[in-house]
Structures are given as C-alpha cells and as structure tokens.
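Sanity check record (used in CI):
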Amino acid sequence: MEKLLDNIIQTNRKYVEEGEVASYIPELKKGNKNDLGVYVTTLNGEEFSAGDYETRFTIQSISKVISLIIAIMDNGEDYVFSKVGVEHTADAFNSITNLETKNLHRPSNPMINAGAIAIVSLIKGREPDEVFERILNFTRKITGNDNININREAYISEKATGDRNRSLAYFMKSTGVITNDVEKVLDVYFKQCSMEVTCKDISRIGAFLANDGVIPLTGEKVIPRETARIVKAIMTTCGMYDASGEFAVNIGMPAKSGVGGGIMAVAPEKMGIGVVGPSLDKKGNSIAGIKVLADLSKELELSIF
Ligand code: DON
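Expected output for Glutaminase:
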C-alpha cells in the first residue's frame, strides 16, 4: 500500500504546476504550491502515508462537515434543513446570486459558504467562544489529536478580508435565515476555517464517517449512523462545489475540499483518506489532490457507484 501511495504521488506531482495557491485570503499565499501528500486510515487500524503528508494547512471548508454534524446533533435534521437546503449548486462556493434567486432565500446547501455560515449560527453555546470551543473539541475528538488549534495568522487574515462572507451573512440576517449576531457567527466561522491540521487528521475524520460515526481507534460511537449517512450524502452531491458531478464520475467517494489545499475523502466501510496539495484549480479544489484520489479510487476500486 505504501508503495502504491508513493507511486501515485510521484505520478501526479507534475499537476501542482497547473494550479495556484489561494490568494484571496492573504495568509494562504504562504502555502507551498509544490506540496503533495496523502494519508490513509483504514477501519482496522492500519495507517499509510506518502509524499508531503506532514505539511500543515488550515482546514478551511472541510470544517463545514464538522459544524454540520454538530448543528444536526443540537437541533435535529428537520430544523437544520428548514434553514439550509440540500441541493447541489452549479455556482461558486462563495456565490451571492444563488442566495437571492434560489430556494426562497435559503442557502442551497451546507457546503457552500452561505450555507456553512447559517449552519454555524445554529450551533448552541452561550457565547461565540463556547460555540467554537465545541467545534474544536469535537474535531480533536474525532481526529484523536488534542494538539489541533487555530492558526492565528490565518484567522486574523481571513477575518480582516472576509467581506464577501460578511455580505452573505448580513443578507441572510435580512431574510431571517440567521437570527443571532452576525459578527459573532462570522467570528466562529473564521475560527473553524483556521484550524490547522495535517492529512493524517483529515483522514481520521474520513475514517470516522466511513465507520458510520464510530471512531475506529477507540470504538466510541460519537454520532448516530443516520447523521453520518446524511453528511456523506451531502458530501457526495455538494462537497466539491461545482465540480462535484465530475468528482462523482471520476472518483465516486463522498469528499470535502478546502482552499488550504486539503481534501477529505470517505471510502465507506473501508477507509478515510486525507490529501494535501495547496495548488488549486479555479473552483478552489486541490488540482493534484484530485488526481491522487482518482488514481487511488481506480487502483483500490473505491468508487461507491
Ligand atoms: O470562507 C472562505 O472563503 C474560506 N474560509 C473557506 C472556503 C473554502 O475552503 C472553499 N473551498 N474550497
């Protein structure tokens, strides 16, 4: 397996040239375009890695999966999906038009920025600090890594330049999707996106979902199987944004990308996979990371379809 991963990384390294590191959040420009790494956590406790798997990066949109799980646990799925839809959108992850023209002002799904911000507003906690603390603790628990923390520079950078997200959030406040303090909700959202991880950490999140909400290493059941099922379905249809259809055809796994360069993928009942490759395509997905997952899916027959 390690040999296979090594080969896949080597074959696909050339693709890092075709993309660019995200620059709309200034701190992300520091990412190394040439990095490419992969980490696999199987459900029977085996772990394999190759390439630059030790690269640290901010979790970014992969955190949307975590806050969705917590929001469902806090409110039940019916309430959550009365506020945020579950329909795929062909628009970009930070699209504004979509919010006004579709779904009676409800964001289309929890994976685009508007939907994710609305989801954060549903998480219970007295103060924003407590809400974020819950997200951080949950992330530490399912990754088995108590050292996960926010990257303060990334957080400050995103908060200082997050006006697109601010406009999405204020718009949703005007339509009643968000009912609490917009700046406080955004602060939690910026913090959750700034959690710093490695592909080992995200492979563990994938393994936890592959195992229907039970942490493979400890056997602890953290969420109902039904919640894991819903989250995987939404990842399959919306996790790679407006590239989700192509990803389903070529790779066929529930997955979630982030502009830090990470992709978390789930091979149900088999393994969780984390890849990192900060060189992104125009849709904000890791360009070489997708190639790595495509090869891995083919070699190990991981497509769910
Ligand atoms: O809100 C943002 O724009 C970023 N914190 C996260 C966006 C993101 O990761 C999109 N992913 N590919």
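The mean pLDDT is 95. If this sentence no longer matches the regenerated tokens, the check is flagged for review.
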